[in-house]
Amino acid sequence: MAEITSQAYQDLRDYIKNSWKYIELQDESSNAILRLSPSDSRITSNVEGNNIKITVVIKGSDSDIIKPKTFAKSAIFNVSTGGQPFSIESFSPFTLETDQDELTVIHTIQVPKVL
């Protein structure tokens, strides 16, 4: 079996960073609460070493959030509805209850680096 080169791993990181389409925030039962595209102002993404980090900041005052709402997972998709997630990350459940509440989710995808 052949190993891919370090440049190939870098290409994978670049592809994921530039090509992911949607991040979905979910409740503890994996039910969708909100699916956002990279163009949404609440989203930022960057590459740090061999990690792609997608950050979402949700506020209780956001018009598309019906409170109270408990968030517990994030998932990456390539389609706006339905589909199968490419990556799922769980975090400690957090409930938005008031307009002043704020949730920051950092979804990290690791693509190993060859030394």
How are the elements arranged and paired?
Layout: H1 6-19, E1 22-26, E2 32-36, E3 43-48, E4 51-59, E5 69-77, E6 87-96, E7 102-110
Antiparallel strand pairs: 1-2, 1-5, 3-4, 4-7, 5-6
Shape: elongated
**Structural class, please?**
mainly beta
Strand content: over 45%
> pLDDT under 50 segments (min length 5)?
none
Strand order of the largest sheet: 2-1-5-6
Profile the largest sheet.
Answer: 4 strands, antiparallel
Describe the structure.
- The strands form two sheets. The protein has a four-stranded antiparallel sheet, with no helix packed on it.
- The longest helix is centred in the first third of the chain and has 14 residues, at 6-19.
- The chain has one helix spanning 6-19; strands at residues 22-26, 32-36, 43-48, 51-59, 69-77, 87-96, 102-110.
- The chain is mainly beta and 115 residues long.
- 12% of the residues lie in helices and 46% in strands.
- The chain contains one helix and seven strands; from the N terminus they run αβββββββ.
- The chain is elongated and about 50 Å long.
- The protein starts with 5 loop residues before the first helix and ends in a 5-residue tail after the last strand.
Question: What brief labels describe this structure?
Answer:
single chain; 115 residues; mainly beta; four-stranded antiparallel β-sheet; 1 helix; 46% strand
Sum this structure up briefly:
The chain has one helix at about 5-20; strands at about 20-25, 30-35, 45-50, 50-60, 70-75, 85-95, 100-110.
